[in-house]
Design goal:
Blueprint (H helix, E strand, L loop, with lengths): L1 H24 L29 E6 L4 E7 L16 E7 L1 H4 L9 H9 L3 E5 L5 H14 L1 E9 L18 E3 L5 E3 L6 H8 L1 H9 L2 H10 L5 H7 L2 H12 L9 E5 L20 H12 L3 E4 H12 L4 E2 L2 E4 L1 H18 L1
Parallel strand pairs: 3-4, 3-5, 5-8, 8-9
Antiparallel strand pairs: 1-2, 6-7, 10-11
Helix pairs in contact: 3-12, 9-10
């Protein structure tokens, strides 16, 4: 029976060690989960948001790089001020690049624009949101507020993730096979809720990037992303998205798309190489959007010229999201486009 006693002793020791680590990490700036709300078949687009009126910690890497605590507002978006019903002004829509937990609120591109405009700019964005969710957000902006202009950021992975069959995750509004915009239901299990409260599990999943490794393993395919997009006919998806946005409460000329530069999707042909290449999906989107009267701010040439002059990159070494320089360059470029159009 000695081996049973030894086994029990080992188990108790392991559990005690995990408990000590868990308690210790609770005093550290471990990354906190932003997506904690379910989505139902009758949910509204703004239900795709985080918990309202909370302070959530962001950090990266094992040593808690760039630890920042960010505030959410009454609508469940990362903002230092609440959103007032019927507000009239500029709205910025997007995913994690608009959520922008990696920088301080006042350093985000939309708040740099707000400072120059001298008026609030409401940002509507959540990490992981695809084009279809932008469409859904824009519809609710039109129903709840009085937008004078919209700025929508376009990132390379936004395209195929908009399709229900190609979605990266549930819990967003997606286009079904008929092109209809529908919520993909999402519930948080009791186990997931428990895991979200554990500092040790969050540390492993986010800071040690176990979650990213698991996602990469699930999505591993022999074809490149560009080839995959061609298989799902992203030009047709672009046409659907633009057609729907052209029928919103603001004219196409009042909607500005911000196209991110090719910084990380194809490292061998990014703006940091001798021969940078613009991905076909972005070229196609720009052409179609401009043909339909939308404004397009293409960051490819802007960031390329800035990098070759200053030799400074626009993202973190451990995170492809825009750093403070990236946000500043985007803000200046978008602001110039908005002022030229006036």
């Amino acid at each position: 029976m000695g081996w049973v006693k030894n086994g029990i002793t080992l188990l108790i020791s392991c559990l005690f060690t995990l408990l000590i680590v868990e308690l210790g990490l609770r005093f550290m700036p471990v990354m906190e989960v932003s997506r904690v709300k379910p989505l139902f078949s009758n949910s509204q687009p703004f239900d795709v948001s985080t918990v309202a009126n909370a302070k959530l910690m962001h950090s990266s890497e094992w040593n808690f790089e760039n630890a920042l605590e960010r505030q959410t507002n009454n609508a469940g978006f990362f903002s230092d001020y609440d959103y007032e019903p019927g507000h009239e002004g500029v709205f910025v829509i997007g995913d994690s690049f608009v959520e922008a937990r990696q920088v301080r609120f006042e350093e985000t591109f939309h708040q740099l624009i707000a400072k120059q405009l001298g008026e609030p700019v409401y940002n509507i964005g959540l990490s992981g949101a695809p084009l279809s969710q932008y469409h859904a957000y824009a519809k609710q902006v039109c129903s709840d507020y009085k937008p004078t202009a919209m700025v929508i950021s376009i990132i390379g992975n936004d395209f195929d993730e908009s399709l229900y069959d190609q979605r990266a995750r549930s819990g967003f509004f997606h286009y079904d096979s008929s092109g209809a915009l529908v919520p993909t239901t999402y519930e948080i299990s009791t186990l997931r809720q428990w895991a979200n409260r554990s500092s040790l599990i969050r540390y492993m999943y986010f800071n040690l990037n176990v979650g990213g490794l698991l996602q990469s393993a699930r999505q591993a395919e022999p074809t490149s992303q560009e080839s995959k997009l061609e298989l799902v006919t992203y030009p047709q998806l672009t046409e659907l998205f633009l057609r729907e946005l052209s029928s919103l409460c603001v004219p196409a000329s009042a909607i500005t798309f911000v196209l991110d530069a090719n910084r990380y999707e194809t490292p061998e042909s990014s703006i940091y190489t001798e021969n940078p290449v613009r991905l076909n999906k972005m070229v196609d989107f720009k052409v179609k959007a401009e043909e339909q009267g939308f404004r397009v701010v293409d960051m490819q040439d802007v960031m390329l010229a800035h990098y070759r002059t200053n030799n400074r990159v626009f993202e973190y070494s451990y995170d492809y999201h825009w750093n403070t320089l990236g946000h500043a360059v985007v803000a200046e470029t978008v602001l110039n486009a908005l002022q030229v159009s006036e």
